[in-house]
Design a protein that fits this description.
Length: 339
């Protein structure tokens, strides 16, 4: 491969949704699986600090990236299995997640409609186990294909071996920085019912007569537009923190001190506390730290309100964590990858 294809000192401003003006020492983008396989085969990643950057919608750069950024631009959706009721599709890692959702909805395939408008790529959806409005992508993924950068071999692992949990997977733990995802397979249904359980969905759907997949997608888009800031207008990376999960005892104690606490049962013994509520109760809605702030309608989202640097956004996130811990004794874990 020609080394000229690696760009030097490359601006990532258009590649991160916080819109931070940071630079990567090296930048390589590829259009096909065979290009990245060849790149790895030739040793271009060996011994190097590297980062796979999809849409940069879940990442905070606190400074320049002193290493090689690789950017997948591999697109494509192909059918691998089809029966009367189900269809399994293989989607390239660089495909834009919401383009895939749009494709499925247009074809009338059920399963991912509640995940409409989530920013990012298909490869990242598996790493992060994206979820919203009562759906999680781990319920639909059948397998993930990746290349191991050490032995340079291609592997396919099934859903169980991906070790999915709330916004987590093996790609954030054991396989972190060790592999590059090439494609993800999803199982979709040819018929089904809409998942309307999440707060706000029935209201959003009520304006449609016989809501189907298209109406569900439109409703989710409407809810998201009314609650979440568009990265094109205000720099942000979606939820900055995960919702903390506690046991029943901790929750009951908190409920005594804060009767209006917002929480949701995960199962009988685990309770997810609404981090947005915790942040709001710390009085952080109107707080600004060197241009970093939280979004008023959804304080779980940190925004780049006024030319904040990555460092300022990080400092602000630490202020939030400290205040929430002091008031509630709960530890907010970042959902965004901080570099
Ligand atoms: N809330 C407040 N004050 C506010 C806003 C919200 O107290 O100003 C409380 C409300 O009680 C609300 C609760 O927070 O019921 C939960 O809010 P929301 O429904 O917006 O969901 P979330 O738990 O804050 C999660 C995901 C979002 C996803 C929404 C909808 C995480 C970390 N975030 O947010 O995902 O869109 O549910 O399903 O789980 C993302 O990951 O980037 C993301 C945006």
């Amino acid at each position: 491969m020609n080394s000229a294809e690696i760009k030097i000192n490359y601006s990532l401003k258009a590649h991160n949704t916080f819109k931070l003006d940071v630079y990567a020492s090296e930048f390589y983008e590829y259009d096909t699986e065979s290009q990245i396989i060849d790149f790895i085969d030739k040793g271009h990643l060996t011994g190097k600090e590297f980062l796979v950057l999809g849409s940069g919608s879940n990442i905070l750069f606190t400074g320049n990236f002193e290493g090689l950024v690789i950017h997948p631009k591999t697109y494509g959706i192909s059918i691998v299995n089809e029966s009367k009721d189900k269809i399994e599709v293989c989607v390239s890692a660089g495909e834009i997640w919401d383009d895939f959702v749009q494709w499925a909805v247009n074809k009338n395939y059920y399963g991912i409609e509640n995940l409409s408008m989530i920013p990012g790529t298909v490869g990242a959806s598996a790493i992060q186990n994206i979820g919203a409005y009562g759906s999680e992508v781990s319920d639909l993924i059948t397998e993930v294909k990746y290349i191991d950068i050490t032995d340079k071999k291609i592997y396919t692992i099934n859903n169980k071996d991906c070790e999915f949990s709330y916004r987590n997977s093996i790609f954030k733990t054991k396989l972190k920085n060790k592999v590059i995802i090439l494609s993800v397979n999803f199982q979709l249904q040819k018929s089904g019912s809409l998942n309307c359980e999440y707060t706000g969905i029935p209201e959003a759907l009520s304006c449609f007569k016989n809501p189907g997949l298209k109406e569900m997608r439109q409703s989710i888009i409407n809810i998201r537009n009314s609650k979440l800031p568009a990265p094109e207008d205000i720099g942000n990376a979606g939820s900055f923190f995960k919702n903390p999960v506690t046991d029943n005892d901790t929750y009951q104690k908190l409920k005594k001190d804060f009767p209006d606490i917002k929480a949701f049962y995960e199962n009988n013994s685990k309770i997810k506390i609404a981090a947005a509520w915790l942040i709001e109760k710390c009085g952080l809605k109107n707080y600004e730290h060197y241009g970093a702030s939280v979004y008023e309608k959804q304080p779980l989202i940190i925004i780049n309100k006024n030319n904040a640097t990555g460092k300022a956004i990080f400092e602000f996130s630490e202020i939030i964590r400290k205040k929430v811990f002091e008031k509630f004794g709960l530890n907010l874990e970042p959902e965004v990858i901080i570099l």
